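Narrative of accomplishments. A recurring question from our advisory board has been how the design workflow behaves on a single, concrete structure rather than in aggregate. To address it, we present the structure tokens for one chain from the evaluation set, followed by the sequence designed for it. No filtering or post-editing was applied between the two.
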């Protein structure tokens, strides 16, 4: 579950979020829509600690992980290695130098969940954009997140790949995760999300 209450954030005196509220239950898929600059990304970035809010409360049951429009994977490493990095925060430095077997097994299960187990040993640079985005989701799963935040996850993808990623996010919600996706495509939001939250300009 994700609960945001009264979130406030300004940049250089310019107020971007002025008391933003959002609650997403486990098993719920919420699409966040709104004009450019309305603060959608900022709200999600505050949840994962990439921005520091000026005020408000953020509650997450378990942990939240984010996937981005620009997919941050290491292209010369395999899909499996990239997913393993999701576990880094809970590994000691020594154990993170070479991912232990149990992490690789968990990462493999995450790749299975996104339908890419058969590409595990492929270098990420050789995967399509849609496949890379699904690897990024697998890495979020390997962080053991219960809340998935997706910031324009399909904006850089062709329509078919976009549908696959939206179906995947929908499936994760169906499995009980709380999912929030910033979207610029209202029709995708209407098709896949349970609820649409529109941010004002
Ligand atoms: N680190 C920052 N420093 C200064 N201004 C910022 C910073 N991050 C965001 N902003 C500004 O805050 C406003 C909201 O940005 P944000 O990216 O959250 O909007 P958005 O709704 O996600 O927009 P878009 O749909 O274009 O991605 C914008 O005017 C942006 O320029």
């Amino acid at each position: 579950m994700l609960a945001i209450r009264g979130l406030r954030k300004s940049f250089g005196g310019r107020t971007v979020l002025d008391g933003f509220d959002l609650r997403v239950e486990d098993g719920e898929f919420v699409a966040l829509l709104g004009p450019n600059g309305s603060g959608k990304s900022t709200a999600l970035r505050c949840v994962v600690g990439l921005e520091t809010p000026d005020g408000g409360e953020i509650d997450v049951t378990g942990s939240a992980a984010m996937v981005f429009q620009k997919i941050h994977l290491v292209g010369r490493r395999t899909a499996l290695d990239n997913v393993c990095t999701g576990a880094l925060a809970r590994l000691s430095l020594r154990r993170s130098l070479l991912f232990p077997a149990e992490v690789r097994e968990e990462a493999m299960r995450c790749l299975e969940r996104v339908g890419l187990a058969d590409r595990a040993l492929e270098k990420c640079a050789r995967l399509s954009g849609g496949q890379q985005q699904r690897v990024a989701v697998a890495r979020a799963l390997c962080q053991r997140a219960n809340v998935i935040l997706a910031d324009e996850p399909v904006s850089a993808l062709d329509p078919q790949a976009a549908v696959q990623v939206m179906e995947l996010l929908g499936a994760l919600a169906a499995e009980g995760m709380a999912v929030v996706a910033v979207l610029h495509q209202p029709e995708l939001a209407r098709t896949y999300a349970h609820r649409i939250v529109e941010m004002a300009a």
